[in-house]
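Supplementary notes for students who missed Thursday's class. We covered one full example, reproduced here. Read the sequence, then the structure, then the short commentary at the end.
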Amino acid sequence: MVELLEEFGIATSTGQKVHRGLRAEGLIYTEPGLGSFVSKKPPTPPGEDADG
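Structure (token representation):
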């Protein structure tokens, strides 16, 4: 995350809020000791079935 903070010039607290939000939405996941990764399949929005 440090690289993103430096590249985009955002504050640490802002980066942490974004990270928490992405994780809460299921767009990223965190593996302890390894880091954070983009989820393979985005979550289905409430009210929509997975088959479209």
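Commentary. Residues 29 and 35 are 9 Å apart (CA to CA). The mean pLDDT is 86. If anything here is unclear, bring it to office hours.
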